[in-house]
């Protein structure tokens, strides 16, 4: 149930990290782009093909050591419906390789509209009796600004399809404080109000490791709030962006974990995708460079958790 | 600049309304679906084709009297990338017919990720020097929970491409109060904090009618807050959902308008799309039934504005 499949993957691989698949064209080695443009022209199809080839290489190189991937919808949507097809194909490929897929869409709406997003990303739809999983991820990031009306439709689908959600609580960016740190009457900041709603919503999706199917997004750039929220939200699993390129280190994320070393999955995107550039190795070795960086990150975070 | 093209359309058509294009399969007449399934099978392609045909009929029937359409992304995304292709084709068709297109995606993210959404929906992207407008709308609804880091990338694109945004402030649903009505220190509710940020962000996109390129979403179901926000946010144009099916009436939305009768555009989706069902007319007349309902709505709202 819930996020249990993710947690099982994390335990098996002894690795609480997720590989962000945010494939900007700039990150993709030229030889992949040239091949894609030769086949499809310098078009949206060509770009989408380059994204998919790049992703498949990363997935092949990471799937036995990294438990999950997190494709960021925006980087697919920016190549139109052709890019969205690459998103679907990426998700399918990663799941075939046993990875848990967190679709990072930050979707939000209400009622039957939110049901449509839930079906699109976590469930199935019917067309004249035929069933389809339009994108088919295992979890979806969502924005809870609209309240329970925007979350309840997801819970229903999550229960039926054994999928989960991550609700934005305290995001990694500097200006997240403008709204999220405003204190409401009683003195609680908005991010904690949102976190407590996650605990409440999560009651409908209990999990066997103690964490519900309603996780929260909390940035690695806010170590104090991470530790505060870990204490306040004992059943809420965290998705932690902001490690690496955005400035969060392993020590910063340690507070996101409980005494058993569970409770969070830490994302890295650019550092993995661009490891070959940083290493200065051959572009053809980009996937193995990502694997080396993934191992370094795994060990870095494991050491920080152990030392707490 | 900004939302001026929308306001110009509203003035020319003397009609401050927008037609929501949320084409659930249930809303679409059988003869359209049967034709689409015959050509493409009972598949996502078939569903997407039915959506597009239905939308084109509505756009043809409405384009000379209604200034804008608002396709809701979720109802396209739920049919996968095939549905997203129908979204793109719907937007292109509506713009060819002179309608202003508000893409209702409630997208949100930060930095270069938000730049990707901005390019996808309001701007252009480059593939090896070739330029493409992936979806090509005139405005996008967005969620401001992440603060300025999530909005600034949009402002840049809006300035370059003469497009605009609508930020969620007070949404139409009952549980919007859970977070949005929480009062922060100083006593202001979260929706007003968000509204004031819209005024601030809007300074970068001034418009010639006094309204900036940063609008706000405020539900017709909250007439008091609509009137309060109209007073507090003199440069922020409102997108008002919740009229009709969700319970808001013409009197309820009157407070969203200024003394010149400007300041808001009121959305109706289901009441237009399903007018043929309510009328009991032939399904083949669905578009003309939508036109009759659009005229009724226009006159209903005009009367309410005039009587204030």
Automatic annotation (TrEMBL), chains A, B:
<dbReference type="InterPro" id="IPR011060">
    <property type="entry name" value="RibuloseP-bd_barrel"/>
</dbReference>
<keyword id="KW-0210">Decarboxylase</keyword>
<keyword id="KW-0456">Lyase</keyword>
<dbReference type="InterPro" id="IPR011995">
    <property type="entry name" value="OMPdecase_type-2"/>
</dbReference>
<dbReference type="Pfam" id="PF00215">
    <property type="entry name" value="OMPdecase"/>
</dbReference>
<comment type="similarity">
    <text>Belongs to the OMP decarboxylase family. Type 2 subfamily.</text>
</comment>
<feature type="active site" description="Proton donor">
    <location>
        <position position="106"/>
    </location>
</feature>
<dbReference type="GO" id="GO:0004590">
    <property type="term" value="F:orotidine-5'-phosphate decarboxylase activity"/>
</dbReference>
<protein>
    <recommendedName>
        <fullName>Orotidine 5'-phosphate decarboxylase</fullName>
        <ecNumber>4.1.1.23</ecNumber>
    </recommendedName>
</protein>
<dbReference type="InterPro" id="IPR013785">
    <property type="entry name" value="Aldolase_TIM"/>
</dbReference>
<keyword id="KW-0665">Pyrimidine biosynthesis</keyword>
<comment type="pathway">
    <text>Pyrimidine metabolism; UMP biosynthesis via de novo pathway; UMP from orotate: step 2/2.</text>
</comment>
<dbReference type="InterPro" id="IPR001754">
    <property type="entry name" value="OMPdeCOase_dom"/>
</dbReference>
<feature type="domain" description="Orotidine 5'-phosphate decarboxylase">
    <location>
        <begin position="16"/>
        <end position="290"/>
    </location>
</feature>
<dbReference type="InterPro" id="IPR018089">
    <property type="entry name" value="OMPdecase_AS"/>
</dbReference>
């Amino acid at each position: 149930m819930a996020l249990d499949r993710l947690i099982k993957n994390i335990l098996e691989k002894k690795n609480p990290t997720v590989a962000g698949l945010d494939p900007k064209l700039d990150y993709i080695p030229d030889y992949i782009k040239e091949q894609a443009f030769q086949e499809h022209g310098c078009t949206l199809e060509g770009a989408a093909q380059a994204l998919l080839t790049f992703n498949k290489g990363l997935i092949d190189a990471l799937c036995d050591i990294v438990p999950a991937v997190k494709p960021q919808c925006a980087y697919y949507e920016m190549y139109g419906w052709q890019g969205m097809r690459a998103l679907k194909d990426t998700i399918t490929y990663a799941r075939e390789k046993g990875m848990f897929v967190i679709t990072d869409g930050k979707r939000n709406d209400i009622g039957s509209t939110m049901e449509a997003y839930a079906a699109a990303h976590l469930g199935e739809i019917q067309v004249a009796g035929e069933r389809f999983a339009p994108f088919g991820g295992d979890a979806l990031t969502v924005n809870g600004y609209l309240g329970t009306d925007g979350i309840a439709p997801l819970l229903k689908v999550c229960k039926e399809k054994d999928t989960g959600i991550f609700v934005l609580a305290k995001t990694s960016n500097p200006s997240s404080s403008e709204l999220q740190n405003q204190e409401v009457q009683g003195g609680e900041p908005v991010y904690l109000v949102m976190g407590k709603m996650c605990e409440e919503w999560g009651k409908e999706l209990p999990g066997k490791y103690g964490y519900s199917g309603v996780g929260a997004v909390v940035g690695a750039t806010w170590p104090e709030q991470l530790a505060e929220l870990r204490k306040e939200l004992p059943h809420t699993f965290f998705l932690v962006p902001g490690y690496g390129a955005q400035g969060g280190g392993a020590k910063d994320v340690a507070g996101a974990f409980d005494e058993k070393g569970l409770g969070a999955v830490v994302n890295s995107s650019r550092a993995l995708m661009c490891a070959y550039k940083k290493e200065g190795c051959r572009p053809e070795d980009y996937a193995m460079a990502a694997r080396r960086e993934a191992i370094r990150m795994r060990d870095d975070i494991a050491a920080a958790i152990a030392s707490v």
